[in-house]
Amino acid sequence: MSYTPSLRKIYIEQVVPELMKLRGYKNKHEVPRLVKVNVNTGIDAEADKNVIADTQRDITVLAGQKPVLAKSRKAIANFKLKQGQVVGCHVTLRGASMWEFLYRLIAVALPTIRDFRGMSSKLDGQGNYTIGITDHTIFPEITVDNVKKHIGVDITIVTSAKTDDEARDLLRLLGMPFRRVEGPAKPTTTKAA
Question: What is the pLDDT of residue 14?
Fold first, then answer.
C-alpha cells in the first residue's frame, strides 16, 4: 500500500471538486495542481566552511532533502566575490516530499510567526507564489539551540495554473492563510429617535 500525504488527500477529495464547481471546469485534469516547491537561501560570500555546513544542514532538515550549493559564476571585485565561491543553496521538492513540506509550512510554521496577520495574496502573474521568511527557526524541525546564525528562506510554490486567480483559489482551498482585504468602510447612519 502506498502512502498518500494528508494535504494531497485534501487536494484530491475536497479541493478538486470545489475548484471544478467554482471555476466551471468540465474535466478534473483542467484543475490547477502543484508542480514543485523551491526552497532557496543565500549564504554570505565571506562565510567560512562552518557557516556553509550549518546552513546546508538546516535546509536539509527543513526540506527533508539535501540542497545543492550555488556557486558564483564570475568574480566581482566590488562585492569581494571570487569565481566558484558558495553564495547560496537551494532544493526542489516534488511528489510526497513537496506535499509534506507544504503541509508543515501552512499548518505549523506560518501560524507560529509573531503578530501573524496573513500572507500577501500577490502572485507573480504566471500562477506561482513566492514567500520570503526572515527566520528559518519558525519550523519545528529546527533546533534553536544548534542555530548559530538565523537565515532567511525564499519558498516558491509553482502551480500549473494559467492565471493568478486560479492559483490563488487553489492555494486558498489548500489552506494558505491569505490576508483578508478590507473593503472601503461603509458610512453608518443613525436613526433619529
Answer: 93
